[in-house]
Amino acid sequence: MSFLKKALTKSPWVFHLSTGSCNNCDIEIIDCLTPRFDVERFGVMLVGSIRHADIILITGSMNKKSVKRVKVLYEQAPRPCAVVACGTCSCGGHFFRDSYNTDTPVSKTIPVDVYIPGCPPKPEALIAGIVKALGKLDEKRKNR
Amino acid sequence: MIKGIFYFLIFPGFLFTAAMGCLSGWFDRKLTARIHWRVGPPWYQNFVDFLKLLGKEIIVPADSMRGLFLFAPVTAVIGATLLSVVLWQPNLRTDSGFLGDLIVAIYLSMIPALALIIGGMASRNPLASLGASREMKLMLAYELPFIVSIATVIIKNGYTIRLYEMVQHQAAHGAIIGSPSGFIAFIVALLCMQAKLGLVPFDIAEAETEIMGGPLVEYSGAPLGFFRLSKLMMLFAMPVFLITVFWGGIAPGALGAAVGLGKLLVILLVAVLIKNTNPRLRIDQALRFFWGPVTVLAVISILLTLAGL
Ligand code: SF4
User: Fold this and answer.
1) Does residue B20 surpass a pLDDT of 70?
2) Using 50, 70 and 90 to split pLDDT, how confident is the model at B81?
3) Is A19 exposed, middle or buried (0-12, 13-18, 19+ CB in 10 A)?
4) How far is CA A33 from the centre of its chain?
5) Is A88 helix (H, G, I), strand (E, B) or coil?
6) What is the CATH number of the domain that holds A9?
7) How big is the A-B interface in CB pairs under 8 Å?
8) Model pLDDT for residues B239-264, shown as the tens digit of each residue
9) What are A46's strand-pairing partners?
């Protein structure tokens, strides 16, 4: 079923989920859509509803109020679906790891497939991360 | 029998309309990208999106109305297919139409929007019902000028409501769009088409950045794919509607097909340019726009027609 694989990897729709970021990672994500990088070339779209998502892109340090919401959103996503942690905050906690109101890292709450470190990561790094996530997405489709 | 099945399922029914719709959708996305100075997606992008959605998990929200929720997307696709079949009969020069198929075509063109409303309401998501109610108001807004502009065409074609006779009449007396009144009516219909297709100044019901896709917010997997497909099919069927009614239809033969494709691209080009140069309206602004200036324009075109222009 190579065309199913092709279909899945040629049109990844990304849902952007901020768990209390400083908004810098989010701006870098938007950068990927600008003429300079133009990820729509590869079929990547930013979608508004979690039900349409193939990849969940998480930014931010996961404050305690987000934990419950992130779990619900993760369960609402249609399978197969990959999770990408974007930014040092969501990968490892960064300087919020000892904070009283965060529950870092994100992987404590939901399983993360790909980590993109950086504060914020460059758009090139983000695109590389999404490409890695595509491989994971296809594995998940096979194991479903 | 076999011919009928071929007619509905392959050409000019489901497969043909879906394929042309996906390509029209690509034209829209690519042109938008070029206007933004981007590269844009490859030509097969919409096909791939649809195939991918077929392979995804289908989630039915726990307290939705299951039957209606799953039935609505199929209705939308069937409506768009039937519209295309009815419209292509006169364009293929087969006189198998019936008295009043113009009226049927107008009704069929409303079915995808109705299905979207039903699906949104059935999903019981607050954002979806908000989108559905906006879609309903938008329908009330654009249907009035649309039907008035079609009335111009009916009068100009010697009071016929058969698509086949309309195309024949235009072949004999020149296209409607060539006369002043016909041109005004065409512009009105073009604006209404923009709203029917949910393109940008009138994408109030879907408003991705505001209510996250409106009625589609709970849809995933294959039903979402069918809704998107029905939208793409309408993106092809509605320009064909306008070409048939206002612009002399599509002539038979290779040359006729090429000219028809040119007309289709011109209409799509205008729609995409309007889409990319306008911000989204509020629902009350859209209602005022359609019931005010646009309806007045449509009425003027009727008066001009009656005066013989
Ligand atoms: S990783 Fe850096 S840029 Fe990203 S949210 Fe954290 S602090 Fe902000």
Assistant:
1) yes
2) very high
3) buried
4) 15
5) helix
6) 3.40.50.12280
7) 78
8) 999 998 888 878 777 888 888 899 99
9) A14
Could you tell me the two tokens for A98?
Answer: 């000892």
Number of separate domains in chain A: 1
Q: Is the pLDDT of residue A122 over 70?
A: yes
Contact A93, A102 (CB under 8 A): yes
| Separation between Cα atoms, residue B268 and residue B38, nearest integer Å | 19
The overall pTM is greater than 0.95: no
Nearest-CA residue for ligand 1 atom 3 is: A120
Angle between helices B180-196 and B126-156 (to 10 degrees): 160
Q: Give the separation between CA B68 and CA B75, rounded to whole angstroms.
A: 10
Of A6, A48, A78, Cβ closest to residue B220: A78
Residue A45 DSSP label: E
| Distance from residue B36's CA to the centre of ligand 1 (Å) | 28
Six-digit token string for B174: 């020149």
Model pLDDT for residues A18-51, shown as the tens digit of each residue: 888 888 989 998 888 888 888 888 888 888 888 8
**Min CA distance, A142 vs chain B (Å)?**
11
Query: What is the pLDDT averaged over residues B143-166?
Result: 87
Confidence of residue B126 (pLDDT cuts 50, 70, 90): confident
Read off the pLDDT of each residue in A110-115 and give the average, rounded to a whole number: 91
pLDDT for the residue numbered B26: 93
Shortest CA gap A12–chain B (Å): 9
